[in-house]
Give the backbone structure.
Amino acid sequence: MTYKSFYYPNNKESIWKKFLEITKREGTTGSYKILQLIEEYVKQHDPGNPQQRLDVISNIGKPYMASTCQDCGRSPVFEGLKKGVWLKYCGLHWDNRQFSVYRKINKK
Ligand SMILES: [Zn+2]
């Protein structure tokens, strides 16, 4: 475990004290609650929605869209070739029996 620190404005000290009171009342700690909030934030925002610059869009001819599962819109895990097009599926909707050529999608 490593120690992290952050800046907290003096004029919000009363909110900080309330925060610690509430976490104590709930049987946890401020550190643990902050960790939970950070984890939830990362889960919701990763991999993010990077701003697209107009020069990049005009270079590739269209806005970049993150690939999604054909069936549900989740992040794809596998893709299979059908009639010359790679179709992407999440782990839940993937069925390799419908493709003769397929591959696992490498995540960053
Ligand atoms: Zn799916």
